[in-house]
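Q: Predict the assembly, please.
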Amino acid sequence: MPLRISEIFGPTVQGEGILIGEPTVFVRAGGCDYRCVWCDSRYAVDTSHRKDWQRMSHHEVWAKIQALSNATPLTVSLSGGNPALQDFGPLIDLGLTHGYTFACETQGSVPQSWFGKLKTLILSPKPPSSGREPDWARLDACLVVGHDAQQIALKIVVFDDADYGFAKSVAKRYPDLPMYLQPGNPDFAASHDVSADDVARRLTWLVDKTLADAWFTPRILPQLHVMMWGNRRGV
Amino acid sequence: MPLRISEIFGPTVQGEGILIGEPTVFVRAGGCDYRCVWCDSRYAVDTSHRKDWQRMSHHEVWAKIQALSNATPLTVSLSGGNPALQDFGPLIDLGLTHGYTFACETQGSVPQSWFGKLKTLILSPKPPSSGREPDWARLDACLVVGHDAQQIALKIVVFDDADYGFAKSVAKRYPDLPMYLQPGNPDFAASHDVSADDVARRLTWLVDKTLADAWFTPRILPQLHVMMWGNRRGV
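A: Predicted assembly structure:
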């Protein structure tokens, strides 16, 4: 069964969450079961873009990763779209035999047995501003099948007070999982370049809010890649 | 024996290195055995500022931490100056009994038995641009006494190509320690505010350099606090 791939790019650094700053090659899956109103990767989500997605075998994806990384092991980040709609198990097996490790970020709506092969599973249930409601039973199922991943972390995007309240409720539900808060990027569709100062201002808002609340358990991080490269693709 | 304290502030977020984004209260020790040419905390280093340092008992420092954090456990970051010139053991013991955890960042020139009580020990040997040369035997001794810390990480500031080469040699010397690279902040003494865009540009330079070299093991991170607040103190 071939994979539907929106893009493969890197090496670059992971711009957000638990692996922030980590060199990585991104494999962006095409296709998603969600349509978040502020999605910054609609080209990997909307079926109108399907003609731009490549059908690639696991071996073809693996060859591309090796070429981009100069055959030097690194972390491969599976993103999307929702990568959990597809079977990345064979690709992960190929990479592991060559010393590569894998991370995957997904909203947690579809459990996949290959989660257990990951070094890092990032679950990012979507807050109210997305227009979606998480299915907690499915997120729980992702935790069960991902139990063998070396680390599991939560990432919550926070645009407003309702999202912030959602993040606190998720933390209460999963007190043992490390949580990463991230200010939303309202300029995802902007044709102008977003400046690092814009991102820094939104980060400061979220930091001030969280600390004033004496909520000290989550880490609060920006999207570094937006600070470095604005909303450009492929970096 | 009272502590010499330059400042205690927070809660804020840790702006750099392995704990980036983590809510924390900073305890900045007064006094340093180094005089790095680009030091951004001369007010905690130069003896001409000694009159501004407070002599505080461990209980006084602990009371201040509790007041700032609303008696809610968090990570306390010991910085400086060089905090390893003083005995923070009794303070750490006080905090641990109340559920607080401790991180310490030091250049690794002075081993202290209390390193073993830390959750996180960050060793930041200074690169050539600092005008200093690390004493490796002392750094090794810090690793020995810090063995019981939950995690130990290296942080290297990189201003130029020589610093970059230094970072690679340190990685070769300590292949098992996670390493964090950080672009230097040349505007530390600037009266104008440093912009997040300035920091983002220097980060991009370091990311590009490291990835072009296919060096994928270190994480590469900016000073987030400079992006958020410029070179202001106390945030």
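Chain B has a mean pLDDT of 95. The radius of gyration of chain B is 17 Å.
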